[in-house]
Design brief:
Layout: E1 6-11, H1 17-29, E2 34-39, H2 48-56, H3 71-76, E3 79-82, E4 96-99, H4 110-131
Parallel strand pairs: 1-2, 1-3, 3-4
Helix pairs in contact: 1-4, 2-4
Length: 132
């Protein structure tokens, strides 16, 4: 990678895992990484338990909205991290693809979302260390 790396997080609804990952990476990177998230079948809004779990660590997702995965977003990314989006993510040569197997927070309360958030945070910090 030359210049500022761009990371794209992708899950099905872009209402939970990918939103948490994007917010956590943006927070920890402090502007050193361009971060985006998208979903193969975006929901109407962010999961309320996800919003609450992120607010507990000082990150506000209240203005975020699920976004549709586009070919342009994948093409622009240096690293594409999928989280259960199946085969919906297009593959382009020269990109780094990672698949993070993480529990889906859909339908869970905040007490069950916290461990998912914390595991995403751990992985995001490892990724950031690799990108620096």
């Amino acid at each position: 990678m030359t210049g500022k790396p761009e990371v794209l997080f992708v899950c099905v609804h872009n209402a939970g895992r990918s939103q948490m990952a994007a917010a956590l990476l943006a927070h920890h990177a402090g502007g050193a990484v361009d971060v985006r998230s998208a979903g193969s079948a975006p929901a109407d809004s962010i999961n309320p338990a996800v919003r609450e779990a992120m607010a507990e660590v000082g990150l506000d997702l209240s203005r975020e909205v699920p976004k549709k995965l586009t070919t342009d977003a994948v093409e622009a990314a240096d690293v594409v991290i999928t989280m259960g989006c199946g085969d919906a993510c297009p593959i382009f040569p020269g990109k780094r693809y990672l698949d993070w197997q993480l529990e889906d927070p859909a339908g869970k309360g905040v007490e069950d979302v916290r461990p998912i958030r914390d595991e995403i945070d751990r992985r995001v910090r490892e990724l950031l260390a690799e990108l620096r």
